[in-house]
Amino acid sequence: MSDPMTVLVTGASGFVGAEVTARLTAAGHTVLALLHRNGDLVRNNGRRLTPGPGSLTRLTGDITHPGLALTGADRRLAATADRIVHCAAVTDFGLPQDRYDRINVEGTRNLLALALANRTPLVHVSTAYVSGERDGTAREDELDLGQRPGNGYEKSKLAGETLVRKAAADGLPVTVVRPTIVTGATRTGRVRDLKTIYPVLRVLTRGLVRTVPGHHDAVLDLVPVDRVADLVTEAATRFQDAEGHTLHAVGHELTLRDMSDVLAEYPSLQVPRFVPPSAFSASALPDRERPYYDRVVSLYAPYFRRRVHFDDTHAAAFSRRPAPSRGRPYLRRLLDHCLATGYLGPAPRKEPAAARHDGSTHR
Ligand SMILES: NC(=O)c1ccc[n+]([C@@H]2O[C@H](COP(=O)([O-])OP(=O)(O)OC[C@H]3O[C@@H](n4cnc5c(N)ncnc54)[C@H](OP(=O)(O)O)[C@@H]3O)[C@@H](O)[C@H]2O)c1
User: What is the spatial distance between Cα 245 and Cα 78, in angstroms, rounded to a whole number?
Assistant: First the structure.
């Protein structure tokens, strides 16, 4: 275990931030949890976070303001941090660009000013999808290659990470962790926040949109939230080994063909038809499907196009954790959990394992 430290965690109530906060306090560190509107710290398993043996101090702030809008005593406390872990962001898709810019770009700028003022080592949580609309292998040391971002969120995360790189060039000790698509727990599939890919799965598996633009060999990389939180926490506690690196927090790769095959194993779930994006027209969808496409599925369209693989050479060398397996068994765990909670409708009757396409068991 590393010596006890004080860590300022922004976005501590978030999906990733709460798990990072739990790990840091469990390892005996003091967390200064920057809370914004939501003051509840709830873990991915649904339980309220009980800190310990380390301690937790709540600070109320807003990263869109200089000094994070911290008041005098809290500002002095924040200045005592040995590390900063920056998880705060707006992560929903389909919002106006100025919202992303204010929180993910200007918020990061304000956070960097605080870190630079105290030269506090920073673990910045970005996204692997700063790589934008591209196919092929995206590497950890690449950033701005002139790529086109897939949406406003990705654009703002690219701009935020560019600011972080500039601060690093100005002498701030920095590590960047880039998760892919953060999803349920490795072993159980359990998930606290049904966002990102989950609403899409719900709309598609209920047959609310039946035709979707996407390549059968497009790749979704789904990373369990525990895997992300482990890597972010380790980057903070073993900072000297991670400093100066960008670490891809990758998970289970899943092609759209894998997804279709796994969905077909569940009699209660509909399987969408993926058609080449060049052959798709949203205006040709039936009237009843169109609103679901526009409000939910279209926001995810770039993810159904990209044949991208995220190289994680630095992350693997740093964490020495085994690489995750292929995506099919993991997708089944996610679906089983969503069915058990009623999110995707009632649970199907179990089929014998031998009936499954690849012979693996359900759990
Ligand atoms: N989830 C994913 O699939 C995914 C994938 C790749 C990368 N990431 C990155 O991972 C990080 C954590 O994501 P997440 O899924 O944990 O996000 P999340 O659940 O949406 O949590 C975001 C956190 O940021 C806080 N926040 C928002 N605006 C703020 C402001 N103005 N001032 C201070 N705090 C503010 C929120 O607090 P309030 O709710 O109180 O506003 C919340 O605690 C983000 O940087 C995200 O870009 C996430």
Answer: 24
pLDDT for 70-129, tens place per residue?
999 999 999 999 999 999 999 999 999 999 999 999 999 999 999 999 999 999 999 999
15 Cβ below 6 A of ligand 1 = yes
Sheet containing 219-224: order of strands: 181-183, 219-224, 252-255
**Angstrom distance (rounded) from CA 59 to CA 55:** 13
Task: Find, among 277, 266, 139, the residue nearest to 218 by Cα.
Answer: 277
Q: Give per-residue burial for 202-214: e unless 16+ CB within 10 Å, then b.
A: bbbbeebbebbbb
Q: How far apart are CA 12 and CA 254, in angstroms?
A: 29
> With contact defined as beta carbons under 8 Å apart, do 140 and 247 qualify?
yes
Nearest to 104 by CA among 59, 64, 60: 64
CA 125 to ligand 1 center in whole angstroms: 9
Burial of residue 175, with CB atoms counted within 10 A of its CB: 0-12 exposed, 13-18 middle, 19 or more buried:
buried
Give the ligand 1 atom nearest the CA of 107.
31
